[in-house]
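Chapter review. Work through the record for Anaphase-promoting complex subunit 7 before attempting the end-of-chapter questions.
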Amino acid sequence: LPAPPVPSAASMSVVEHVREMAAAGLHSNVRLLSGLLLTMSGNNPELFSPSQKYQLLVYHADSLFHDKEYRNAVSKYTMALQQKKALSKTSKVRPSTGNAASTPQSQCLPSEIEVKYKMAECYTMLKQDKDAIAILDGIPSRQRTPKINMMLANLYKKAGQERSSVTSYKEVLRQCPLALDAILGLLSLSVKGAEVASMTINVIQSIPNLDWLSVWIKAYAFVHTGDNTRAINTICSLEKKSLLRDNVDLLGSLADLYFRAGDNKNSILKFEQAQMLDPYLIKGMDVYGYLLAREGRLEDVENLGCRLFNISDQHAEPWVVSGCHSFYSKRYSRALYLGAKAIQLNSNSVQALLLKGAALRNMGRVQEAIIHFREAIRLAPCRLDCYEGLIECYLASNSIREAMVMANNVYKTLGANAQTLTLLATVCLEDPVTQEKAKTLLDKALTQRPDYIKAVVKKAELLSREQKYEDGIALLRNALANQSDCVLHRILGDFLVAVNEYQEAMDQYSIALSLDPNDQKSLEGMQKMEKEESPTDATQEEDVDDMEGSGEEGDLEGSDSEAAQWADQEQWFGMQ
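Structure tokens for Anaphase-promoting complex subunit 7:
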């Protein structure tokens, strides 16, 4: 059969011209023309049919959505739905108008369901999640497309409606069994890996080269249960397979898992591999920037932040990286602003919440910091650093009981590993009654992982209190045998001073400063030794705790001078 003739431009109605331009992506043109036509329709209601008015309103709203004018778009979408409702009633009363042109028009009317989905998108952009859920809930279950179910699942999850979220994710998988993000959503809501795998088994068996998917599901099931070791081993087995070698997502997941496991060296290595494979990578770069900042590589952090801003300033990651640079430069006021900006862009950014919480804590605003750390825990219940931040706040406000309850809870929830043992020991060290328990916990942690830096630092602190400097020196030398860390070199320097080994102490402080030129305590250690050799009247500067310190408010070192500059940004400071 010959193809139906294409209507000429002359025979097309003006509404059809608008539709053609919308389909062609000429949004600015659609906005201008549809706006004029809607004014004409307002002045002469008989000029366009109800179905034509509906189409004009939808196309005009779509053009507003494209221009990111979401409130205006919602207003026009609402008017369009009201027009569609009136149109439906008219059709029921008068099914045929006798207009020959009405039939093809009715066939190509914009979908009412698609209009509601666009409205929900507008509401989410406006951070009106309840309105987004309400509009999508109004769509009958049988008419919901996979993207509607996916949006509903994510919104339900964010609102804490876990059962509804699970149902919606499962519906996405029923319709699209290879929807991997829906699989991750189910796993994050504690649905068993075996149950999730059973929903994809038919497609795995029917399509060649998909045998890896069951292993992939198993790996991320371990991720979401907090079993970092087995997750790392499973993802490594996937990454070594020739077909999945050098996959950026797998490398990013590995980097994040190493970070969670406290293996910062391997975490940085995997982030660097992923970055080399994809120079435009944004996901996970906030954690990478934080790790670099902790190591004192502030120039690298600054370069990373600039590169990420050039890629996109609409993601949280570049703001977090820049905030980490400010934080470790002791510019807490600026770090606070940058963290808040990152939260505004992505309220689910755990790293942004941790940055903002740490900045608030170091500025003495401990109760506000606690709110942020609690939100981070809600979003990432398997990440130990979220609990560490909260416990540091409790200790800073002398709430040792609350800190002990939280540390015990983490120990029971995440299991007895080097990290949880060290965290519990950290709290025990604050109470004279539990000093011996702290010692036992640290010994267990170091038996599991002799190179775990936080455990070594806390054990050294305990030995320092007991004035067992020789034991401390042996511990630190052993820990530094296979790694180099600024804090360990600095503490070794302190211990060497205590046993009058001044020259080697000076060497250790120098090594520490070569690793982190901004390490204030190493600098103070050197200056103290120099003063003892040639005393002066210069006063010693006050200690400033870093992000891993006790959380006590220290000298902001210049942040006060910035306070006025950033005071105008207080609208960013509240929780989003």
